[in-house]
Amino acid sequence: MLKFYKYQGTGNDFVMIDNRDLKFPKKDVSLVNLLCDRKFGVGADGLILLEQAEGYDFRMVYYNADGNESTMCGNGGRCIVAFAKHLGVIKEECCFIAVDGEHKARIDEDNLVSLQMIDVDQVLVEKKYSFLNTGSPHHVQVVRELDRYNVYAKGKGIRESDLYAPEGTNVNFVEQEGPNRFRIRTYERGVEDETLSCGTGATAVAIAMYEQGKADSTTIAIEVEGGDLMISFSKEGDKYQNVYLTGSATFVFEGGFNI
Ligand SMILES: N[C@@H](CCC[C@H](N)C(=O)O)C(=O)O
């Protein structure tokens, strides 16, 4: 029986597994895909392993719902901090290692997690879109009437376009809600659908909007379908640093899965 925990961060949901004993079959793409399946498995946008790592509080290994290991997940990063606290691996502060490098994080008594993201020194700004990597690749496009926008069809088209082949990209559609406040909807690579939230996506949108002059504060509020996120950063020359993604990370349930 495989013991699992389910967490969600602003509606981006994850199966969490304590793999400090290294017993999880990490190359089993179909098993990860099955665990994330919403009809035949537990159901999640991704699966995350917590492992031991020398010099760090823990290691985060992230898989998309399609079963493949992928690049950084910001909401997953916030959720694994809450999971590590639940397991007694950390207290309020930690430093962990993920696929894109080291991350510092802080969790408060209400499970609000502030996670440091990687520095960003390249933001491509084109007339109709921006592209940047915040741990995962993100296309950012401002649209009108976001509520009525066909995020699935348009997002899938951009994700699969020659522009981003062969790796593909995540795709964020944005509408400005007020000064330094934006609402976004995201099509996620590896889930191959719209998700309720994407942390690296929200971070990418905040930086892209600042870079384009649509925001003038280094603290930006991002409304996602599943809740609210806050992104803060500083800019030194062309480099965005001290980038922090803040939002809630919530335990949902735990159980055992027959494998
Ligand atoms: N949900 C994520 C992003 C996860 C990675 C993405 N699907 C990819 O493969 O690029 C987040 O919260 O950042």
UniProtKB/TrEMBL annotation:
GO CC, alphabetical = cytosol
Q: Which UniProt keywords apply?
A: Amino-acid biosynthesis, Cytoplasm, Isomerase, Lysine biosynthesis
Superkingdom of this protein's organism: Bacteria
Query: What enzyme class is recorded for this protein?
Result: isomerase
Q: Where in the cell does this protein reside? A: Cytoplasm
Residue sites binding substrate per the record = 12, 64, 74-75, 170, 188-189, 199-200
Q: Name one GO biological process term.
A: lysine biosynthetic process via diaminopimelate
For this UniProt entry, the molecular function terms from Gene Ontology, in alphabetical order, are: diaminopimelate epimerase activity
Catalytic activity field: (2S,6S)-2,6-diaminopimelate = meso-2,6-diaminopimelate
The protein's annotated pathway? Amino-acid biosynthesis; L-lysine biosynthesis via DAP pathway; DL-2,6-diaminopimelate from LL-2,6-diaminopimelate: step 1/1
Q: Which InterPro entries match?
A: DAP_epimerase_AS, DAP_epimerase_DapF
What are the site positions for Could be important to modulate the pK values of the two catalytic cysteine residues? 138, 188
Which residues of this protein are catalytic?
Answer: 73, 73 (proton donor), 198 (proton acceptor)
UniProt EC number: 5.1.1.7
Q: Which Pfam families match?
A: DAP_epimerase
The UniProt entry lists the main location of this chain as cytoplasm
As given in the record, the signal peptide range reads: none
Q: Which HAMAP family match?
A: DAP_epimerase (MF_00197)
Function according to Swiss-Prot or TrEMBL: Catalyzes the stereoinversion of LL-2,6-diaminopimelate (L,L-DAP) to meso-diaminopimelate (meso-DAP), a precursor of L-lysine and an essential component of the bacterial peptidoglycan.
Self-association state and partner proteins as the record states: Homodimer.
Supply the PANTHER family for this chain: DIAMINOPIMELATE EPIMERASE, DIAMINOPIMELATE EPIMERASE, CHLOROPLASTIC
Q: Tell me which family the UniProt entry assigns to this protein.
A: Belongs to the diaminopimelate epimerase family.
What is the protein named?
Diaminopimelate epimerase
State the organism of origin: Myroides pelagicus
What taxonomic ancestry is recorded?
Bacteria, Pseudomonadati, Bacteroidota, Flavobacteriia, Flavobacteriales
